[in-house]
Design brief:
This protein has 70 residues and is mainly beta. The protein has a single domain, classed as Ubiquitin-like (UB roll) (Roll). 10% of the residues lie in helices and 34% in strands. Strands 2-1-5-3-4 form a five-stranded mixed sheet, with no helix packed on it. It is globular, with a radius of gyration of 12 Å. The N and C termini lie far apart (52 Å). The model has no long low-confidence stretch (mean pLDDT 93). Pfam families: ThiS. This is Sulfur carrier protein.
């Protein structure tokens, strides 16, 4: 039986076939290399933990991409 991981990202449901790290999540969303802030279940995740933390079913993420300008 295949386990599907269901998470919310910026208010939209997303499904993954396997657990991925936050770095893997950013790759899936084509956001690698961009300046982002990630909030997981209401708490800001330090960039230093992006490789170590994996998504879990029921997680809720807010991902904000920094936009430069002036």
């Amino acid at each position: 039986m295949t386990t599907v991981i269901e998470v919310m990202i910026n208010g939209q449901p997303r499904h993954f076939a396997a657990a991925v790290s936050l770095t893997g999540l950013l790759a899936e969303l084509d956001l690698l290399g961009k300046r982002v802030a990630i909030e997981r279940n209401g708490e800001i995740v330090p960039r230093s933990q992006f490789d170590a933390l994996t998504i879990a079913s029921g997680d809720s993420f807010e991902i904000v991409v920094a936009v430069g300008g002036g």
